[in-house]
Write a structure and sequence with these properties.
Blueprint (H helix, E strand, L loop, with lengths): L18 E3 L3 H5 L2 H13 L6 H10 L1 H12 L3 E3 L3 E3 L10 E3 L2 E2 L1 H5 L7 E7 L6 E4 H17 L7 E5 L4 H12 L3 E5 L4 H9 L6 E5 L1 E4 L2 E4 L1 H10 L4 E5 L16 E3 H5 L13 E2 L3 E6 L9 E5 H15 L8 E3 L6 H7 L8 E5 L9 H9 L3 E5 H10 L3 H4 L7 E5 L5 H11 L4 E4 L1 E3 L4 E5 L6 E2 L5 E2 L5 E4 L12 E4 L6
Parallel strand pairs: 6-19, 8-9, 8-10, 10-13, 13-14, 18-19, 18-20, 20-21, 21-22
Antiparallel strand pairs: 1-25, 2-5, 3-4, 5-15, 6-7, 11-12, 16-17, 23-24, 24-26, 27-28
């Protein structure tokens, strides 16, 4: 039963019926964000009572917050930082964690046991293929060794023209393991969209697949790859069989191409992996702007900045552990793919699904949630709206007993979509509308397991993100429309 006490601390203008969910006592007891708050109180002899107090401290004491966050998350490093943040003028990018040396892939592969790491599902399947952390480490070891053999070294660029599957994750980690930089386009971008993005990066190696399946149709990708190869130069093009066996795939018309099996060759016997150590600010990813105002622009993201932001959000804002299973419906080119994959660093397994969200059954996403016991599900706000329009009511057809959180992004989640989720999907679930972007590869507005959910509202501003709303004159305002502005630096 919701009552007036539940509205204490709610935003102005909120009514009792706008409160849709609140955390239960068990959730509050095991919230990492509260554990972190208590840690700060103990060390600094402060009296931070709740999330809002912790948030304010995180932006007021910026350097202390990021230092404590780094220590709390405990990333694997070969050399610790000398200084958290170097002073810099507003127009320059400050240097974070100066002196730190680490490797992105080493952190995502810190768990190497036989527990599931990735469940890779292609449209038309439900069971998919499971890959353990040990198997993932072995795959990455082989790929990294093969990349070195073709001359890939620290700072080189490697690209994917790939679907969302476990092979894409392993290839990305192999690239990061040798200190190279990863970028990826999705097969649905086509030839022009792919070349417009990759031409600015000039990758030495391209990984791709022969075909993808979407909306019950197989789309051949090799003709596109052939056209791309005539418009750009690559040292090697590696074809990864995805829907068909190698014997049924013809790559003779693609210059400098070979199959993944041949690319790996003798490196399949490799069992040890030496992670190339790089500075905190060394690039790990290149993402791209949408291209709506011209050729897509490169968005470069650092090893350390990406890692600390993602782990902060995944652990403190969404409470992910090894007991969870995270699934985000995304392509391998969207920022949320990179965000989801970082959950591996927490030992949290992920689902990689490639295909239509409504085919071959309109309930395929919810079928996967029930079958594999997904605990945290990520969707676009548009997808939720489409489910509403299609009359898809999972609450009537599925158990969803494992599902504890639904995250939406891509656009604001409308108030009536909040109502739809709680009425037709699940009544007790943390529904977090989150906002960030490819330009920061992280979140400005996030979720929080210790805060309630109100209709039409984002739960909170992300820790360490000094987010304000400015009017046209550049003044901070509240409870009225304005421009989102982040007034202080952050690592990513």
């Amino acid at each position: 039963m919701l009552n007036e006490i539940d509205l204490k601390g709610a935003p102005s203008g909120i009514r009792a019926y706008d409160l849709l969910w609140k955390p239960d006592p068990l959730s509050l007891k095991h919230a990492f964000v509260d554990e972190f708050r208590e840690r700060i109180n103990l060390k600094y002899r402060s009296d931070l009572q709740n999330y809002e107090d912790l948030y304010q401290w995180s932006v007021d004491q910026l350097e202390a917050f990021w230092s404590e966050t780094w220590d709390y998350l405990d990333p694997i490093v070969s050399r610790h930082h000398d200084k958290v943040l170097t002073a810099a003028p507003m127009e320059e990018v400050p240097e974070w964690f100066q002196g730190c040396q680490l490797n992105f892939a080493e952190n995502l592969l810190r768990f190497r046991d036989d527990r599931p790491a990735i469940i890779s599902i292609v449209e038309g399947q439900i069971e998919g293929v499971k890959l353990t952390f040990a198997q993932l480490y072995q795959q990455v070891t082989q790929i990294a060794s093969a990349l070195k053999a073709v001359g890939i070294k620290k700072g080189d660029h490697v690209a994917g023209y790939l679907p969302n599957c476990s092979d894409t994750v392993a290839i990305m980690l192999g690239v990061a393991a040798v200190g190279a930089v990863w970028c990826c386009t999705s097969p649905d971008f086509g030839v022009t969209g792919t070349v417009d993005r990759l031409v600015s990066v000039a990758p030495k190696v391209l990984f791709t697949v022969e075909a993808v399946r979407y909306n019950q149709k197989v789309h051949d990708n090799l003709l596109n790859v052939e056209k791309v190869s005539k418009m750009m130069k690559f040292d090697v093009i590696v074809v990864v069989p995805f829907l068909r066996p190698e014997a049924e795939i013809n790559i003779k018309n693609i210059p400098k191409s070979l199959f993944m099996k041949d690319f790996l060759g003798s490196h399949m016997q490799q069992t040890t992996l030496e992670f190339e150590q790089v500075p905190f600010n060394h690039p790990v990813y290149v993402l791209f702007s949408s291209g709506t105002t011209g050729r897509p622009k490169c968005l470069v993201h650092s090893v350390g900045g990406t890692l600390i932001q993602h782990l902060k959000e995944l652990k403190m804002h969404f409470n992910l552990t090894r007991k969870d299973l995270l699934m985000f419906y995304t392509t391998a080119a969207w920022m949320m793919w990179h965000w989801e994959v970082s959950a591996l660093a927490l030992g949290c397994p992920i689902v990689c699904y490639d295909g239509s969200s409504f085919s071959p059954k309109e309930t395929i996403v919810w079928d996967i949630v029930d079958h594999h016991k997904v605990t945290v599900l990520g969707l676009s706000a548009k997808m939720v709206s489409m489910m509403e329009d299609k009359g898809i009511h999972p609450r009537e057809t599925h158990d969803l007993i494992s599902l504890r959180a639904i995250l939406t992004t891509g656009s604001p989640l409308s108030p009536h979509s909040y109502d739809f989720v709680y009425a037709k999907v699940k009544s007790h679930v943390m529904l977090s509308s989150i906002t960030g972007g490819s330009d920061i590869i992280s979140l400005f507005g996030a979720g929080c397991p210790t805060l309630p959910v109100y209709r039409g509202l984002i739960q909170c501003r992300g820790l360490g993100m000094a987010v304000e709303c400015f009017d046209e004159q550049g003044n901070p305002v509240r409870d009225q429309p304005g421009e989102l502005v982040c007034t202080k630096p952050f690592p990513s």
